[in-house]
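re: ur question from yesterday

yeah so i grabbed the chain u mentioned. its 268 aa long if i counted rite. heres the sequnce exactly as i have it in my notes:
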Amino acid sequence: MLFFILRNFTNVRKAVINDINTRLIATYRTIKRNPQGVIDRLAAMQGDFYLLTPDEQKDYYMFARQRFNSGNLDDEEVSAHLIFLNHTCFNGLYRENAKGEFNVPFGRYTKPVICDAQNILSVSRLLQKVEILQGDFQATANYIDENTFFYLDPPYRPLSATSNFNSYSGNKFGDEEQERLKHFCDTLDARGCRFLLSNADCKSVNPEDDFFDYLYRQYQIHRISAARSINANPTKRGKLSELLICNYRNTASNAIVAEGETAYKKKV
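ran it thru and got these structure tokens back, copy pasting raw so excuse formatting
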């Protein structure tokens, strides 16, 4: 969403992003500051990886994952390792255990593009107008005013007990956190902000699950069809109903929702 907005709305003078994942934010900050350093390290990893047999590639991946979790890497190495792991792990998934360790298994792709230098340089140029924060979503409260648009993309509420994935970071994001986020949206609304929030449509799996419909009942709830490729069972991959929730409705705002849906579908 960030890069869609920055590419398509060139009148945006400043953007602020925030995430609780320290490694992701370190990667954004490093690419903004020193993209060539990330490219150099990533190119070396790609060159090594391409020379290996599939079994050796798995070993290389596991070694890279161990180094990534060690906490002994500099910023450029953290960034290169995060991108490498993202491009070679199972389905490009990011998941941490309770210790905060990345624990996604190897993905076994045929010669994946690991170092896209032009993309990294392009991202670095766009990030020059972005302030990058790291922490809880409440960290963005100082940026609330009537001219601010918020897009919120929290860890999704599980669709079922067997799909309970909210370990994007070592911190869990359960129903209490979802409710705390809703109260934050109330603050945004009361202070004149427009917000757009995405989440899972639990009602599509369980018609009696009114969690979000009740929680956000005073706002606009849009159900959209989004492609999903991450599932251990290939037969369960495909399109799912997901939620876009916002606090605005008029002709001009509908255009924002439409733009949001377009960017969101590109994201997934």
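noticed a couple things. The first strand starts at residue 15 and ends at 19. also Residues 28 and 115 are 16 Å apart (CA to CA).
anyway ttyl
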